[in-house]
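Sharing a chain and its predicted structure for anyone who wants a worked example. Both blocks are below, sequence first, tokens second.
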Amino acid sequence: MSARWRGTVVYIGSLVVIGAAAFAKYGGVLGQDTQGATTAFASASSSATASPEPSPDRSQRARPQATDKSGSTDETAAESADKATAEAEPPETEAPAPPPEEDPPAPEQVTITGAEASSIRGPVQVAVTFEGDRIVDVITIQAGTDARESIRINDEALPILRQEALAAQSAQIDTVSGATYTSDGYRTSLQSAIDQNG
């Protein structure tokens, strides 16, 4: 055998020896580890198959609780929405009080001139101011003549006749003593104005 082949045989023999030694040292350990791993895997598989975990309720799985930005649940979010709605609604206000009733306007004043009444001492005529049916003033337009006696009688009688007409609110007034003709003419003209006022 040549030296070349001899070296090759020695080299192969060395590899075989090294391989046998390695197998003797590590082969059993590797086999045990592999067997243990296989056994552990099989055990885990059987336990998983034998006792499966209960599945969650579909309603819980299909309807997760909604949360708002602050992390609160639906109930808290609903309360917040109700509160916001209540704050947005305007507060109830009392109905405004009706305006105070205004007094009806006063009737317009109307002045009516009565008919001229004749007398021995001259014509007598008055103008009557009415506010509705109420007599508010009586003005003498003419009474008697320019005679001194007639003027004296009228100065005394006419103010009294006017006051009685306002007090009586009619032509039913008394005759002033000493001025009978003037009183009669005054009543006649006053009744004429009342009749015109209706």
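Comments welcome. Residues 79 and 144 are 98 Å apart (CA to CA).
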